[in-house]
Amino acid sequence: MNPASPLQTCLSDLHRNCGGRMVDFAGWEMPVQYESIQKEHMATRSSVGIFDVGHMGRICILGEKALDFVNRLVTRNVTALQAHQVGYTLVCNTEGGVQDDILVYRGEGSTVSLVVNASNRQKILQWFQEYRDSHGDDVEIRDNTLETGMIAVQGPGAEIVTGHILRQDLSRMGYYRWREVSLLGTPVCVSRTGYTGEDGFELSAPPDMIRKMWLALFSAGAEPCGLGARDILRLEMGYPLYGHELTEQTNPWEIGLGRVIDLGKSDFIGKTALQAMKERGISKRLTGLVLKERGIPREGYPVLAGDKHVGIVTSGGYSLCRKAGIALALVEAGCVPEAVEIRGRAIPAAVEKPPFIPSRVKAIPKPK
User: Fold this and answer.
1) Cα–Cα separations (whole angstroms), residue 151 to 56, 89, 185, 240, 325
2) How far apart are CA 142 and CA 145, in angstroms?
3) Could you say which residues of the chain have pLDDT below 70?
4) Which of 33, 38, 298, 367 has a CA positioned 20 to 30 A from the CA of residue 61?
């Protein structure tokens, strides 16, 4: 492969065989869609969709002090996680800006695994390695991304179809919990997590097993889905996306992520800046908008209150479930947006707190 060519997941040839339209995404060759984004979106909402998420970074931190090490680099208190619990958190810079939003998987003892955004994998690896080396921490940082694959199985039928191919009863597995199972003698990491608002699981394993599971899921009727469907599914939930709602210049309080910032725990990178941000109060806030007339809001479109520009769309698209244009927008605090400017025309919009449709993850059982 040409060094400048995008990386490929272990499922790339299977995507092409299914008619996947491949694009370069964050340095990876990924399917943006197969037959249609609409079909994939509705399949996930009504039955089961499967997504190749092998481009996401998978990093393991090993050593007796691994958990404490990670706790000093993220905003939530991950030492409070139980064994086999998953926690959503932020990695901030010293100014409090967001370097990435990640998932932390706590294992037995102090072992910790991270799932990071594809576009930030190298940055986060370097950040963690430099911190380790400068502070003399005796931990091993292992990047497992290229040695493994990852599949997301999402939708109301995800529990049944995932349990079937894994030969496991997943009905008592709680939301944001994970376990390791053995399938044909191969270890598979199973977490009840996802990015769609539906019940679902994410499976990590060596490449050969990922291929076998993908084919088994496909044979069981799961719909292959690309990046296009994944984006509108997460937008309907109001989930932030790195590079859109989250950047290194983002104030996390303005995005509504104060729930994953624990200023009461011991010192961590960005704590002083985040404390100061909270004390100053916010000047902007992330707001959900639903268009009242026909139109599709896109990233970068101006948000209006009267004839005044009061913000900007950070993510937007068309919701098949709402049959309307929806958007997340960063707007001036204290103002009430009234419209989105699309090609020079003000399209009326209503303010609505996401999610824009009910999330089914609330129906997932609590951990036993």
Assistant:
1) 10, 21, 19, 21, 29
2) 9
3) 1-4, 362-368
4) 367
CB distance 60 to 112 below 8 Å:
yes
How far the first Cα of the chain sits from its last, in Å, is 47
Cβ–Cβ under 8 Å, residues 316 and 301: yes
The whole-angstrom separation of Cα 178 and Cα 334 is 41
Each residue of 120-149: b (16+ CB within 10 Å) or e? bbebbbebbeeebeeeebebebebebeebb
> Can you read off the two tokens belonging to residue 327?
């958007």
Q: What is the pLDDT of residue 2?
A: 45
Of 3.30.430.20, 3.30.460.10, 1.10.275.10, 3.30.70.1400, which CATH number belongs to 58-145?
3.30.70.1400
CATH fold of 7-54+148-237 = Gyrase A; domain 2 (3.30.1360)
Is the CB of residue 96 less than 8 Å from the CB of residue 252? Answer: yes
Helices (H), the chain: 12-17, 37-46, 66-71, 121-135, 158-166, 207-219, 227-237, 271-280
Annotation: CATH topology of 283-351: Elongation Factor Tu (Ef-tu); domain 3 (2.40.30)
pLDDT digits (tens, 9 = 90+) for 29-55: 999 999 999 999 999 999 999 999 999
